């Protein structure tokens, strides 16, 4: 069974079944999921959300309250349960163990699906809960090989594919986090110059929660040359989220975003994509569609979408970018 067959496009009846067929997932409509927020008030104000919202993402305070507030409550329960398990393990071992390591959340999805906005909103909302105020966000873009190295390897047209990342460095970072290292550093990436920023690091100190956001973070471990299986990034996740939508919708969102960038960021003299600012409207659409069809679309189909079934929770978006239903793996 393929990953797309394993997760049907429509929500079930709320009991984890599709027309009587058993499923390892609980599926809740937007309305049913929103009811889980109860009386809790969203901690985000309109101006905060405006700063967090990505280009073309129509998330509003209603969606925050109905979708992300229940999700942050659920994640907070998972974090609390991890703390309880840590204490129970100490008692079982009859000895004091090292402090509990940070709770790590992996967040995956296609280019233009809105995963960066989801990651930023979750970071802010989780940090408002007093049990875990220190929430760090790491994007895997910083672990892309620099453009010069990608060009040397002939990978510039495969930027974003798994092989374009320094996967060893990314895995080491997450291993360090889950080993309890008090301070870790992550490289930074500039979308303006479309490259890793040399000698610029994000320093993360003693976080309660770490969100790892990127296209391929749910990829399984690779087989090594000797036939043995190495560790994968997702082996160290305590929870994972996949932001999902119909492929045709994502393609259109990518084109729409390209057109907006053509009128804004692409006009910056320092922009790597400055050459696109002079395109006509029709030329810009054609170029965006070419990039999607030759790079982002194949990466989605070959590498990203097949990892959807590995996620603990799937947020399924509709054509208007709003979350339509939630699929949660059963415990």
Fraction of residues in H or I helices: 25-40%
Order of helices and strands: HEEEHHHEHEHHEEEEHHEE
The total count of strands amounts to: 11
Adjacency order of strands in the biggest sheet: 3-11-10-9-4-8-5
Main sheet attributes: strand count, strand direction, barrel closure: 7 strands, mixed
Shape: globular
List unreliable stretches of 5+ residues: 1-8, 11-16
Q: What is the fourth-level CATH superfamily?
A: P-loop containing nucleotide triphosphate hydrolases
CATH fold category name: Rossmann fold
- Summed up, the helix count is 9
CATH class: Alpha Beta
Q: Class by helix and strand content?
A: alpha/beta
Q: What is the count of structural domains?
A: 1
First-residue to last-residue Cα separation = 22 Å
Taken as a percent bin, the fraction of beta residues is 15-25%
Average pLDDT number? 89
Radius of gyration: 20 Å
Do you know the CATH architecture?
A: 3-Layer(aba) Sandwich
């Amino acid at each position: 069974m393929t990953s797309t067959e394993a997760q049907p496009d429509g929500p079930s009846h709320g009991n984890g079944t599709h027309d009587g067929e058993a499923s390892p997932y609980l599926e809740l409509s937007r309305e049913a999921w929103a009811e889980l927020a109860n009386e809790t008030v969203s901690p985000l104000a309109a101006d905060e959300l405006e700063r967090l919202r990505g280009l073309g993402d129509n998330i509003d305070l209603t969606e925050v309250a109905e979708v992300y507030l229940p999700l942050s409550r659920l994640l907070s329960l998972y974090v609390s349960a991890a703390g309880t398990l840590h204490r129970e393990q100490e008692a079982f071992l009859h000895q004091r163990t090292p402090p509990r390591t940070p709770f790590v959340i992996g967040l995956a999805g296609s280019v233009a699906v809105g995963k960066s906005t989801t990651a930023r909103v979750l970071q802010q909302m989780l940090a408002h809960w007093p049990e875990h105020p220190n929430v760090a966000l790491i994007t895997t873009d910083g672990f892309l090989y620099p453009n010069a190295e990608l060009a040397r390897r002939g990978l510039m047209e495969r930027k974003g594919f798994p092989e374009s990342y320094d996967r060893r460095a990314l895995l080491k970072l997450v291993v360090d986090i889950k080993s309890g290292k008090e301070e870790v550093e992550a490289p930074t990436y500039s979308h303006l110059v479309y490259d890793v920023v040399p000698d610029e690091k994000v320093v993360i100190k003693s976080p309660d929660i770490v969100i790892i956001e990127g296209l391929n973070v749910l990829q399984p471990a690779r087989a090594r040359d000797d036939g043995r299986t190495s560790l994968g990034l997702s082996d160290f996740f305590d929870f994972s989220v996949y932001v999902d939508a119909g492929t045709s919708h994502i393609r259109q969102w990518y084109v729409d975003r390209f057109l907006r960038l053509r009128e804004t960021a692409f006009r910056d003299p320092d922009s790597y994509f400055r050459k696109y600012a002079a395109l006509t409207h029709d030329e810009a659409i054609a170029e965006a569609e070419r990039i999607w069809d030759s790079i982002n679309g194949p990466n989605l189909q070959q590498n990203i979408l097949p990892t959807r079934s590995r996620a603990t929770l799937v947020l399924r978006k509709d054509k208007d970018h709003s979350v339509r239903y939630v699929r949660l793996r059963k415990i």
